[in-house]
TrEMBL record:
Matching CDD domains: TOPRIM_RNase_M5_like
PANTHER family: RIBONUCLEASE M5 (PTHR39156:SF1)
Primary gene name: rnmV
Family statement drawn from the similarity comment of this UniProt entry: Belongs to the ribonuclease M5 family.
Subcellular locations according to the entry: Cytoplasm
Keyword flag Nuclease: yes
Protein name, per record: Ribonuclease M5
Length: 183
């Protein structure tokens, strides 16, 4: 598994990267890079590192510059224009898994054994899945931990990919959910 979070432009890019490697992938959705997205990128950079992999075109370079200006410690991975070309469309979503892997290797992506700290059982135990208010609870905890909101599967993936410690998780649970506070 690649340790760093890979930042791409859109959902088709996420799918292409996930075909190539096992990694946490964050889509910025084009120029919609708001403070929430920058916050997630900063948190990922602090915890695991970030690799930016945008389209080899003007828009992709502009997005890359916006991110690099706000989060200067990111790494950069590049695919060649010809690797991302399908007809007149140029983008990461068109690149082969081999081209994406080459770009990530050139960016010195860190490959390590995936450590599973949290399981679906943990989500259910703390009512982050399977309870009527699970969505709200994931929103609250995601904000507190700096990993953002996600459905149960993506929230679980982020807990593990962002290297959230068990202690940090438990402290956030106790802080934000009264029924888990020590009496």
């Amino acid at each position: 598994m690649i340790r760093e979070v890979i930042v791409v432009e859109g959902k088709d890019d996420v799918a292409a990267v996930k075909k190539a490697v096992e990694a946490e992938v964050l889509a910025v959705h084009g120029f919609g890079i708001n403070e929430e997205v920058i916050g997630k990128i900063r948190e990922a950079a602090r915890r695991t590192g970030v690799i930016v992999l945008t389209d080899p075109d003007h828009a992709g370079e502009r997005i890359r510059r916006i991110i690099a200006k706000r989060v200067p410690q990111v790494k950069h991975a590049y695919i060649m224009r010809e690797e991302g070309r399908r007809g007149t469309n140029i983008g990461v979503e068109n690149a082969s898994p081999e081209a994406i892997l080459r770009a990530l290797e050139a960016a010195k992506a860190v490959v390590e054994e995936k450590e599973i700290r949290f399981t679906p059982r943990d989500l259910h135990a703390f009512k982050l899945a399977g309870a009527p208010d699970s969505k709200l609870r994931r929103q609250i905890l995601g904000k507190a931990l700096g990993i953002g909101y996600g459905n149960s599967a993506s929230f679980l993936s982020r807990l593990n990919a962002y290297c959230i410690s068990v202690e940090e998780f438990e402290q956030a649970i106790k802080t934000h959910f009264e029924e888990y506070r020590d009496e």
